[in-house]
Amino acid sequence: MSNLVVLRRRDALREKVREWKQQGFSVGLVPTMGALHEGHLSLVAKALQETDRVVATLFINPKQFNSAADLAAYPRTEDDDAAMLKAAGAHCLYVPDGDQIYPPGFATNISVSGVSEGLCGAFRPGHFDGVATIVAKLFLQSEADKAFFGEKDFQQLQVVRRMAQDLDIAVQIFGCPTVREADGLAMSSRNRRLSAKERAMAAVLPETLFAASNAIEAGESIPAVLHAARDKILAGGFKSVEYLELRDAATLTPITDELVRPARLLVAGFLGAVRLIDNVQVTPN
Amino acid sequence: MSNLVVLRRRDALREKVREWKQQGFSVGLVPTMGALHEGHLSLVAKALQETDRVVATLFINPKQFNSAADLAAYPRTEDDDAAMLKAAGAHCLYVPDGDQIYPPGFATNISVSGVSEGLCGAFRPGHFDGVATIVAKLFLQSEADKAFFGEKDFQQLQVVRRMAQDLDIAVQIFGCPTVREADGLAMSSRNRRLSAKERAMAAVLPETLFAASNAIEAGESIPAVLHAARDKILAGGFKSVEYLELRDAATLTPITDELVRPARLLVAGFLGAVRLIDNVQVTPN
């Protein structure tokens, strides 16, 4: 178990990271909004493999929420999060005070066109601007060498990759595989808001995704597979499916016809009041 | 006269700057669009005072031009610029190839609300997004410690300050006084597009600004002074005045009533086909 340093000011974080770098250590960053689960810990584990010192961040970013209700409902569990990070071997937890992220007069916005359009971007206006802006800030505040994101939020990962490349931020970005519960449900802080009954139904989402991915890989018609998959998710108890789409894995441009390059099948839907997202790889033969 | 290194690739610039930093040198950045004049050289001189190694950049950024004609008409004088920088003692000229700034698939935009609104922002849609984005990139590509901008482009200076602060870019920004011709005209690469007759008339702009500043400082009515000054500029031969406004020097919020904090009087107008801008300080008693 490591000694976890908790910092709340940007300059303290920067000083700590520069001190580590002067000692010859590489530094990894794991940005989170807290409510940690095994998915986050897998990012910490990967960061510990790839770098010498690991900083996890916890900031519930109001700019990436579309509704005040969703922001208010977001779980806040800092003490548990710190204990989990310490046990996982992280070296630092950065929990910035609000003014360290949005000082008085803050007026700057980063937007990424293309990869942020459609999918979650269509249903959560401004969400990816909020993501791109906060992540750029965390990269630049920390001066980390490498940063670790889950493929669970696949569109977010592509937005972050594009932003960091376009703005010449000297950080290497790692996308890490989604961690799943025993029944296949992708781990998410939102899962704890599911009722027991909803939780029992939720596995229809990954089951359907994996089956659809296999069917597309086997050469079945993409529109037909997507249509049937949507029906299956709704029949499985989901209230709605916001999107279920096959996209190019790198550019996120839609694929409706033929599978020639690595693709991703992405879904978002509501189970009761809880919005769940997931995605799986689809590989051409 | 120094040895001027000319670099055209981001990674070559970064390597050079990191080499300097490892040697214990601080690094100053002077971003330009070329067509250098004494105003730019004053920034280089200030940078040489404040840092050990000075990088000037030359990139004519298409994203900050509103019209293709204005972009096409912008002077391109790289050889002259390099000779002037060498004579001035700069250590490096970075002239990035286009793909070093906007690689294929580039999709990221930085916008700054507040300080970018009104004034030039009202007449040049997208201009300050282009400025904020390119300057952020140059800061992050170069990893310079300090950067130097002219007060001639006062609104730009405030946009750059806000952007760098909001995005936690570890660069210190210096605003440097406008350099003027003998008759008071602010130096600008656009001045060379004035006809001899227009050039002779141009001094009405700074003369009027300084007189108006004095009148406001002496307690005359702000609206009355601005109204008379606008008339005087038009009577002096300007085809139009886009704006003539008194603004808070830090936040650029309009001042129409009483002068209580340091302010700036800013103007833009057309003399023939050439758009000229200028600004002067207005100090409360």
Automatic annotation (TrEMBL), chains A, B:
Pathway assigned in UniProt:
Cofactor biosynthesis; (R)-pantothenate biosynthesis; (R)-pantothenate from (R)-pantoate and beta-alanine: step 1/1
Primary site of residence: cytoplasm
Q: What is its EC number?
A: 6.3.2.1
Which reaction is this enzyme known to catalyze? (R)-pantoate + beta-alanine + ATP = (R)-pantothenate + AMP + diphosphate + H(+)
Instruction: Look up keyword Ligase and say if it applies.
Output: yes
Q: Which domain of life is it from?
A: Bacteria
Q: Which residues form the active site?
A: 40 (proton donor)
Compartmental location:
Cytoplasm
Q: Which family does it belong to?
A: Belongs to the pantothenate synthetase family.
Summarize the protein's role.
Answer: Catalyzes the condensation of pantoate with beta-alanine in an ATP-dependent reaction via a pantoyl-adenylate intermediate.
* HAMAP family reported for this sequence: PanC
The name under which this protein is listed is Pantothenate synthetase
